[in-house]
Structure formats: C-alpha cells, structure tokens
Amino acid sequence: MKKKNLPPNLYSIPALFGHVNLLVDGEECVLIDTGMLGELRPIRKQLRTLGLEWDSIKAILLTHGHLDHAGNLEKLARITGATVYGHSEEQIHIEGKYPYRGINRVCGLLEFLGRAVTFYKAGGIDEFIEDGQTLPFWGGLKVVHLPGHTKGHCGFYSPKHDLLFAGDLFLSYFCFHYLPPVFFSNCPEFFEQSFRKVRDLNPTQVLPCHHIFTDGYRFRRSMDKIWERKFANRNQ
Length: 236
What we know:
Layout: E1 3-4, E2 10-14, E3 19-25, E4 28-32, H1 40-49, E5 57-61, H2 67-70, H3 73-80, E6 83-86, H4 91-94, H5 105-117, E7 127-128, E8 134-135, E9 141-145, E10 154-158, E11 163-167, E12 171-173, E13 176-178, H6 191-201, E14 205-208, E15 214-215, H7 216-230
Parallel strand pairs: 1-15, 4-5, 5-6, 6-7, 11-14
Antiparallel strand pairs: 2-3, 3-4, 8-9, 9-10, 10-11, 12-13
C-alpha cells in the first residue's frame, strides 16, 4: 500500500476489511491487529520483503476484539510466539461471547457467520493494557483507551512520531469520513469523549484501520471534520 507522510518503518498492510499495521524496529517488529481469513499471506510477504520472519514479530497489539481485527490472533500468536496485548474488556469479543442486544445483534450475527465460515479459533490476551500505559515498542507506544466502538477499544500513540493508531474510532474512505455504524458499535455514547481525548492529545497524524489512501495528516483532518459535524455544536 502506497503511503504518504508516514514513518518509513511503518507498513500499513491491506486486509479484507481494513488494515493491519507492521511497526519495524531493526530486526524486531510489532503488529497492530491481525486481520482475518486469507490475510496472513500479505503479512508474510511484507515480512519477507524486509528480510524478516514470523518470529521477528515480538508483540501483537489489539485495538479491539472484533473478528476483522482478531481473526488471525490465535494462529499468529502460535506461529510467532509473540505476546498479545489488549484491553480486558476485549477478551469476551475474541471468544465470541459478547451479549449483543438490540440493533447490535446485527454485529453478533455477522460475527457468528464469519467465525463459522473461517473456522475461527479464539486466541487469548496475554497482557491486559490500561489507559496511559506505555508499552516498550517502537520507541514507546502509549495506550489511549477510546471506547465507543467497543468498551475496551484502544488506540496506540507514538510520541516519537506524533502518530496515533486510532483503530475503529472512525472510518475514512475517499472523501467520506464517518463513525462506525451504530449496529457495529456497542457503546456509541462514548464516542464524543473519545474524540475529545484525541483532540486533547492533538497528534499531528492519525491512522485508522479502515481507509483507502494512507496519509496520516489527511486522516487527522478527516477526524476533525467528524468532530465538527457530529459533536462541536453540542459544546457551544
């Protein structure tokens, strides 16, 4: 995937429904999210292009536990030996046991079907993460708890690069920028506070999981447009 303005040691790898991000530091690297069925091949291809192998991945960081983000978690953790980091609220999503209610049952049904079609095996989180915690990868990554899409949804902020990996805080396709659909988001009442937290953090660049053109500055502007459209008038 062609990228613009992002650090040279960051590789945003297209997956079926979004992107996984490979953060390289010498001969070791970290993977943010895992994609789902059929998406191990482009990850492996990127590793080999860089002269790396599966065991070069030392950590897997989960933004949240939905199938399109944790679909390869069990297999990747097994073949890499990497430690898996994620919020404690996300293990129930990984296991497919979250009690979806109301319109969110649409998400539950789609995930149920997806697990059946992909012969899904649930992985596990090895280390639970908390808001404000700094992880010792890629020059230091700060955990930013951003509930809304799920209760334990987290982003990862790199002070070194002034870049936030925003997970599914928002989506950006071409000129369309929007919040995740309500039937995929089990606690949308928290989106405003999560957007406010990111605006207070004020990163120069933002990288969501679901996008087309990879440009961290552009996505920051996209996020600001969503704020103005959805939340700014509430705070006047």
